[in-house]
């Protein structure tokens, strides 16, 4: 369930800074506000897959920091994204994580009605609004892009290119799994984890812990584990299982049951691959599935982890069994990582915590932190500035660098 990456360079070296981000960056509300505004809301976020919303009127909602959105299947089959915010007094328009609307969107507060394309059909008791110009009160659109069947949205414009351009180095490998044809194995899941969002990725971004912390993954492919840089902020980790692998029940039976899709090229027929999506998500491919998951901050010390596994529409019993067993392996890994992320995150508040001291096998973790620091140079400081000066000090540091 997680991205596990070894060192960016195979060559051990002592000429790099083995510290990670300073501890204060994991419990500063003022910094989280900046992270949201400058990083998370300006990067493409995965909402789900086109087959999560197959019929006109189907929707998925997506919250991030102060922003709320939903993606709605239109009558003509296209998809649109809107801020989930009524233009009357700001109520949510759709209220569930996913669902279906018939014919129109009706605000649950006072009953304003919107068309699927976001235009205002009418206010409740329109006589009480003198000269209401309906054209000025449509739902506000949110940028949307579909890549390989996955729906991405972006709340704020940023320097990031389109999803297709950003993830182009992944396209051939991801595309060989035919992800656009896949269907969800259930409803998009989510769970709360009591850590800062960065702690989730810190655990994900290195493979140094796999041998110790993840017996099932180690059993499956630990000895073949490799990592590769595909481009700026594009880091991929891969492991290939061998026939006969599996001291553990779930691994042994997964290897026996695994039935790759006939279209998969030879080199991917036993491969589990993890494609990092900066700053907070990952795609995982296995011979039977493609999945995504992401971490989204709720507040400085709590995050949502959210994701879904997708399968081929026609699935044999054998593939279904393999998928079930891979889920068991993933689930165990997820629980192990959750505990590790909690312990690591807690330590950031302890007087005994100095800093990370990273192994050569944790170079990807450091590289991820460097990417964050390039966007928010304030994270280079060992001590935080006063909260009210956070944005100004960051701007001054940014100006020095430009
Ligand atoms: S807030 Fe939507 S109708 Fe009043
Ligand atoms: Fe892990």
Verbal overview:
By secondary structure, the protein is of the alpha+beta class. It has 2 domains: 1-42 and 173-402, Naphthalene 1,2-dioxygenase Alpha Subunit, Chain A, domain 1, CATH 3.90.380; 44-157, 3-layer Sandwich (Rieske Iron-sulfur Protein). The protein is built from 10 helices and 18 strands. The protein has helices at 29-39, 163-166, 168-175, 197-204, 210-213, 215-221, 249-257, 317-347, 363-375, 390-401, and strands at 45-49, 58-64, 67-73, 79-83, 98-100, 105-106, 113-114, 120-122, 141-147, 150-154, 183-184, 189-193, 226-231, 234-240, 271-277, 281-285, 289-299, 302-311. Strands 11, 12, 13, 14, 15, 16, 17 and 18 form an 8-stranded antiparallel sheet that branches. A 7-stranded antiparallel sheet has the order 1-10-9-4-3-2-5, with no helix packed on it. Strand 9 (141-147) and strand 10 (150-154) form a beta hairpin. The chain is globular, with a radius of gyration of 22 Å. Bound molecules: FE2/S2 (inorganic) cluster and fe (ii) ion. Residues 86, 88-89, 91, 107, 109-112 line the site of FE2/S2 (inorganic) cluster.
């Amino acid at each position: 369930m997680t991205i596990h990456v070894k060192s960016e360079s195979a060559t051990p070296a002592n000429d790099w800074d083995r510290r990670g981000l300073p501890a204060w960056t994991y419990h500063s509300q003022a910094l989280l506000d900046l992270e949201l505004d400058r990083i998370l809301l300006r990067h493409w976020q995965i909402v789900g897959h086109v087959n999560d919303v197959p019929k006109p009127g189907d929707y998925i909602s997506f919250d991030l920091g102060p922003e709320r959105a939903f993606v709605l299947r239109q009558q003509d089959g296209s998809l649109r994204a809107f801020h989930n915010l009524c233009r009357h007094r700001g109520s949510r328009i759709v209220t569930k994580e996913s669902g279906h609307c018939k014919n129109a969107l009706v605000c649950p507060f006072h009953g304003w009605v919107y068309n699927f394309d976001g235009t205002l059909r009418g206010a409740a008791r329109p006589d009480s609004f003198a000269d209401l110009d309906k054209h000025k009160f449509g739902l506000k659109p949110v940028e949307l892009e579909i890549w390989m069947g996955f729906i991405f949205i972006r709340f704020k414009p940023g320097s990031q290119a389109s999803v297709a351009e950003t993830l182009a180095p992944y396209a051939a490998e991801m595309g060989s799994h035919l992800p656009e044809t896949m269907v969800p194995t259930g409803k998009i899941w989510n769970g709360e984890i009591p850590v800062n969002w960065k702690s989730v990725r810190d655990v994900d971004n290195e493979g140094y812990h796999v041998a110790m912390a993840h017996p099932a993954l180690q059993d499956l492919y630990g000895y073949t584990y490799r990592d590769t840089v595909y481009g700026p902020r594009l880091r991929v980790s891969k492991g290939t299982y061998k026939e006969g692998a599996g001291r553990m029940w779930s691994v042994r039976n997964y290897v026996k049951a695994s039935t790759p899709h006939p279209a998969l090229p030879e080199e991917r027929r036993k491969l589990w691959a993890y494609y990092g999506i900066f700053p907070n998500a990952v795609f995982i491919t296995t011979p039977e599935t493609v999945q995504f998951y992401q971490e989204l901050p709720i507040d400085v010390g709590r995050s949502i982890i959210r994701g879904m596994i997708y399968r081929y529409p026609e699935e044999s019993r054998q593939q279904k069994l393999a998928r079930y067993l891979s889920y068991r392996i993933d689930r165990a890994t997820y629980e192990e990582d959750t505990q590790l992320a909690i312990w690591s995150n807690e330590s950031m508040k302890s007087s005994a915590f100095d800093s990370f001291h990273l192994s050569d096998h944790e170079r990807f973790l450091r590289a991820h932190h460097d990417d964050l620091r390039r966007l928010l140079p304030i994270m280079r400081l060992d001590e935080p500035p006063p909260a009210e000066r956070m944005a100004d000090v960051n701007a001054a540091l940014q100006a020095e660098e430009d």
